[in-house]
């Protein structure tokens, strides 16, 4: 004998809709939810200029709850900047980001004299960017970071592109 159910023949849409709604809320509040921002725009949300990353970031991950991030390049990248500084980026850059502060950085180093030192923290104070290698730090005006450097040639690529229609740019 078949049991009778007063709900028989009626769709059980309320529980299904409730489950769908809860799953949607979990996804939207998930720290790994897909964002429409690129890595440079995400940096700007934390009050950093986009030029602290080189051109060519292919993707990033950001956990908004903890601030943990990773940015990805096609490969390692190096270039020289005005003042004799040489910078090197690994293919993955990581650390923690909060408003005006990047900490526990990995994947970025600067050549000081004959030594390569890891940049471990970047702090924005008003219109200055302070870069720390742990034992020492240096500050630079923020307007030095409004433009993204390019792997191989830094900021000199912009001049070459304007004067030479087919510049030779290499990634390391």
TrEMBL record:
<dbReference type="InterPro" id="IPR036758">
    <property type="entry name" value="At5g01610-like"/>
</dbReference>
<feature type="signal peptide">
    <location>
        <begin position="1"/>
        <end position="36"/>
    </location>
</feature>
<keyword id="KW-0732">Signal</keyword>
<dbReference type="InterPro" id="IPR007493">
    <property type="entry name" value="DUF538"/>
</dbReference>
<protein>
    <submittedName>
        <fullName>Uncharacterized protein At5g01610-like</fullName>
    </submittedName>
</protein>
<dbReference type="Pfam" id="PF04398">
    <property type="entry name" value="DUF538"/>
</dbReference>
């Amino acid at each position: 004998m078949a049991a009778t159910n007063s709900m028989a023949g009626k769709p059980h849409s309320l529980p299904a809709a409730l489950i769908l709604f809860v799953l949607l809320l979990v996804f939207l509040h998930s720290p790994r939810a897909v964002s429409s921002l690129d890595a440079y725009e995400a940096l700007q949300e934390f009050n950093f200029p986009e030029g602290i990353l080189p051109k060519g970031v292919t993707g990033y991950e950001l956990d908004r709850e903890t601030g943990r991030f990773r940015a990805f390049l096609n490969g390692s990248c190096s270039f020289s900047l005005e003042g004799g500084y040489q910078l090197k980026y690994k293919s993955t850059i990581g650390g923690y980001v909060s408003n005006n502060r990047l900490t526990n950085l990995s994947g970025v180093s600067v050549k000081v004299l004959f030594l390569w030192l890891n940049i471990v923290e970047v702090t924005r104070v008003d219109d200055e960017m302070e870069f720390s290698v742990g034992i020492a730090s240096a500050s630079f005006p923020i307007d030095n970071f409004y433009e993204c450097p390019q792997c191989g040639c830094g900021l000199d690529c912009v001049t070459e592109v304007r004067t030479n229609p087919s510049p030779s740019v290499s990634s390391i």
